[in-house]
């Protein structure tokens, strides 16, 4: 084959492949829909929920997370239901190649080595925080997932206010995307039920990336 014909053939192949590359789903398409969380839930973008720089994805047990520098896009949505204190959030993050799996390894390692005493936090307004973690299992989640029941006691950076609470957090990764599902509010049983269901639905959304 002549070099001119070879170049022409490559151009045809690359041109044909372009639509497939452009069709990669947006983070909004990967994030949970309100109906996936449960009946009656409404969705909103949290303040600065589409920003990467200056916003934190991973913060646990005082560890540093080098994968934070590999993020290329981020979207965090909040889901609430009228008359219900329980809140659910889904954060979906796109990384440079390999970054999502690195992030999942980092957060899993932090959870396994979490100090029992207070540690610093990279979250704005939090001076230090103490964690008590318990691992959760759910066979409907993606391989390598991390699911935790987190009891925390946080001391604020201003006036030293103390905030206590319990949350459910679940991290899963597929390809170059990491999904975090978080719950907050009263009632551990409700958090477990709604949070794990939302995480299972997030797993289905991530599986569609294959």
CATH class: Alpha Beta
Mean pLDDT metric: 88
Shape descriptor: globular
Binned strand content: 25-35%
What sequence of helices (H) and strands (E) makes up the elements? HHHEEEHEEEEEH
Widest beta sheet: strand line-up:
1-2-3-8-7-6-5-4
CATH architecture: 3-Layer(aba) Sandwich
Topology-level CATH name = Protein Transport Mog1p, Chain A
Q: Largest sheet at a glance?
A: 8 strands, antiparallel
Q: What number of structural domains do the residues give?
A: 1
Helix content: 25-40%
Structural description of this entry:
- The chain has 210 residues and is of the alpha+beta class.
- The chain has a single domain (25-207), classed as PknH-like extracellular domain (Protein Transport Mog1p, Chain A, 3-Layer(aba) Sandwich), CATH 3.40.1000.
- Helices cover 30% and strands 33% of the residues.
- The chain contains five helices and eight strands; from the N terminus they run αααβββαβββββα.
- It has helices spanning 3-22, 27-30, 34-37, 99-112, 188-207, and strands at residues 41-45, 71-81, 87-95, 119-120, 126-135, 146-156, 162-174, 177-184.
- Strands 1-2-3-8-7-6-5-4 form an eight-stranded antiparallel beta sheet, sandwiched between helices.
- It is globular.
- The two termini are 35 Å apart.
- The relative contact order is 0.16.
């Amino acid at each position: 084959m002549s070099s001119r014909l070879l170049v022409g053939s490559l151009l045809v192949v690359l041109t044909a492949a372009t639509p497939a590359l452009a069709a990669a789903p947006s983070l909004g398409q990967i994030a949970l829909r309100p109906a996936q969380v449960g009946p009656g839930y409404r969705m909103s973008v949290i303040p600065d929920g589409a920003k990467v720089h200056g916003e934190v994805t991973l913060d646990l047990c005082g560890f540093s997370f080098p994968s934070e520098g590999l993020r290329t896009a981020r979207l965090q949505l909040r889901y609430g239901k009228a008359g219900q204190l329980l809140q659910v959030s889904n954060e979906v993050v796109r990384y440079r190649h390999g970054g999502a799996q690195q992030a999942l390894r980092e957060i899993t390692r932090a959870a396994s080595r979490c100090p029992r005493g207070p540690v610093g936090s990279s979250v704005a307004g939090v001076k230090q925080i103490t964690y008590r973690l318990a691992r959760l299992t759910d066979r409907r989640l993606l391989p390598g997932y991390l699911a935790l029941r987190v009891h925390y006691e946080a001391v604020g950076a201003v006036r030293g206010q103390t905030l206590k609470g319990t949350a459910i957090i679940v991290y899963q990764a597929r390809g170059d995307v990491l999904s975090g599902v978080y719950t907050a509010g009263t009632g551990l049983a409700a958090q477990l039920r709604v949070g794990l269901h939302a995480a299972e639905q997030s797993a289905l959304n991530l599986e569609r990336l294959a």
